[in-house]
């Protein structure tokens, strides 16, 4: 049986706050298996591909600038229903209302910035996961 894969990013706010280990720990404690990982400085071209669905929205440029503001850690995690499962671990997009117990609910808050800073990214569908893993890790 082939298991599902997702792309997780520890965003620059998470790296700056030294939360990489905390995020990895939560992924592993849940039982998902990390099968690839790299720390990198994402450039504009890569981020415009990654966030293509948000092109034209008011927070798009702030989002790209924020994601270029420092290194990110890209992670491939595997397991049955890992896409849905990691989104659940991450919590709601808005950290103010993200449930306590989630990564965003426990570790992030509103910073008054034009873009929401919320520690992690997780793919939202199998199609997104395949596309995003190729963007960060190649074929
Ligand atoms: P998610 O990361 O939960 O999948 P998304 O794909 O809708 O959320 O948006 C990507 C990121 O952009 C999100 O993590 C934080 C930021 N963002 C989303 N909606 C926003 C908004 N209305 N205002 C400011 N930033 C926003
Ligand atoms: Mg998204």
TrEMBL record:
An annotated GO BP: GTP biosynthetic process
Annotated signal peptide: none
EC nos: 2.7.4.6
Requisite cofactors: Mg(2+)
Assigned keywords, A-Z: ATP-binding, Kinase, Magnesium, Metal-binding, Nucleotide metabolism, Nucleotide-binding, Transferase
Residue ranges constituting the Nucleoside diphosphate kinase-like domain according to the UniProt record: 3-139
Molecular function (Gene Ontology), one example: ATP binding
A Pfam short name: NDK
Keyword Magnesium among UniProt keywords: yes
Family stated for the protein in its record: Belongs to the NDK family.
Protein's recorded name: Nucleoside diphosphate kinase
Organism this protein belongs to: freshwater metagenome
